[in-house]
């Protein structure tokens, strides 16, 4: 009788874990999908204004926001439907299974490397060396944006070959390839971006401190003249984005390594359920990280808030005023 009770209690606990995972997925990915799309569109509108889009850092932010739309509407939405509502769209067709994982992996990496390129750009822009500052130019930025997209579309093209839903479940069905993919993703989409962001963030801060000390007055004054308050605000945004990236993205590759290292370890049903929950949670954190971009911009950058307010004033309220004037003029004409 006691054994039956224990088994029943264990089964109830496992069912609870899976139910909490479903609820957790609905709310976290639902929030990320809504806030992410809203934030990405706002970022595109703000940084695309005529006096903003000429800045190379703004160009990277625009490219990052556009690529994040693919991240949310392909990766986030399908994961939310699958784990939150048990609607497995990408299990229906083999081609959809392959394309879904291909786009998801590629467009998780692509936005990260736009932030890295923006960090590198700010390092060159803040340099006291005139030749280095020349590397921060719109022409170079446009080439790097296109190159970044093509690079990661090629790097993750193997997903189109190895992912399949032959048994009705979209997966790789190849343990060796699974090892390769997770290690590649941990390096290319987590450890390497974090390392590069930290390196160039630190180098940029070092340049700014050097400018402030004015060790070489002639060069420093020229650098200050080439860097506006807008540039310093964009550098501040990048630093905070790196911090949030570190906090929210690193758990995923760490769990991947743990999961692969314990692949052949015998596990109880409760441990399997807990690891399933953790695995899903660290995936959700990736999308939460992307959706937090707009919150960082609004809370940290006065420049972004001012530009957003100006955008609303000029594009929305002006159109309403113009519409009101047209109606008033039309009514006045009718009276005459």
Major β-sheet annotation: none
- What is the name of the CATH superfamily? Rhodopsin 7-helix transmembrane proteins
User: How many domain units?
Assistant: 1
Helix/strand/pairing class, anyone?
Answer: mainly alpha
What's the CATH architecture?
A: Up-down Bundle
Cα separation of the termini: 94 Å
Could you tell me the number of beta strands?
0
Strand proportion, as a percent range, falls in under 5%
Keywords:
single chain, 336 residues, mainly alpha, Rhopdopsin 7-helix transmembrane proteins
Describe it.
One of its GO terms (cellular component) is plasma membrane. It is a multi-pass membrane protein. This is G-protein coupled receptors family 1 profile domain-containing protein. It comes from Adineta ricciae (Rotifer). InterPro entries: GPCR_Rhodpsn, GPCR_Rhodpsn_7TM. The chain starts with a helix and ends with a helix. The chain has one domain (2-300): Rhodopsin 7-helix transmembrane proteins (Rhopdopsin 7-helix transmembrane proteins, Up-down Bundle). The protein contains 13 helices and no strands. It has 336 residues and is an all-alpha fold. The longest helix is centred in the first third of the chain and has 46 residues, at 2-47. 83% of the residues lie in helices and 0% in strands. It has helices at residues 2-47, 56-85, 94-125, 130-133, 138-155, 159-162, 175-213, 217-226, 229-249, 251-261, 269-291, 293-300, 302-335.
């Amino acid at each position: 009788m006691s054994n039956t009770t224990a088994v029943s209690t264990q089964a109830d606990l496992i069912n609870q874990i899976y139910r909490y995972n479903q609820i957790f997925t609905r709310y976290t990915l639902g929030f990320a999908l809504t806030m992410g799309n809203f934030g990405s569109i706002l970022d595109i509108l703000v940084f695309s204004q005529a006096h903003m889009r000429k800045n190379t850092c703004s160009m990277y932010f625009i490219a990052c926001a556009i690529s994040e739309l693919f991240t949310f509407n392909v990766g986030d939405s399908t994961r939310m439907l699958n784990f939150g509502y048990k609607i497995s769209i990408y299990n229906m067709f083999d081609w959809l299974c392959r394309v879904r994982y291909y786009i998801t992996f590629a467009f998780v990496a692509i936005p990260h490397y736009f932030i890295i390129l923006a960090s590198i750009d700010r390092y060159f822009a803040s340099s006291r060396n005139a030749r280095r500052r020349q590397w921060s130019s719109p022409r170079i930025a446009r080439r790097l944006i296109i190159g970044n997209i093509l690079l990661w579309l090629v790097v993750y093209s193997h997903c189109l070959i190895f992912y399949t839903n032959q048994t009705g479940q979209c997966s790789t069905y190849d343990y060796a390839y699974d090892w390769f993919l997770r290690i590649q993703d941990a390096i290319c989409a987590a450890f390497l971006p974090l390392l590069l962001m930290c390196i160039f963030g630190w180098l940029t801060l070092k340049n700014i401190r050097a400018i402030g000390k004015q060790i070489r007055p002639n060069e420093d004054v020229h650098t200050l003249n080439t860097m506006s308050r807008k540039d310093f605000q964009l550098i501040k945004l990048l630093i905070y984005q790196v911090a949030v990236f570190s906090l929210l993205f690193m758990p995923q590759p760490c769990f991947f390594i743990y999961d692969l290292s314990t692949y052949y370890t015998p596990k109880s049903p409760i441990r399997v359920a807990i690891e399933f929950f953790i695995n899903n949670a660290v995936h959700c954190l990736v999308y939460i990280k992307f959706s937090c971009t707009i919150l960082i911009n609004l809370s940290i950058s006065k420049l972004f808030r001012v530009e957003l307010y100006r955008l609303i004033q000029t594009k929305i309220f002006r159109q309403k005023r113009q519409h009101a004037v047209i109606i008033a003029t039309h009514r006045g004409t009718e009276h005459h």
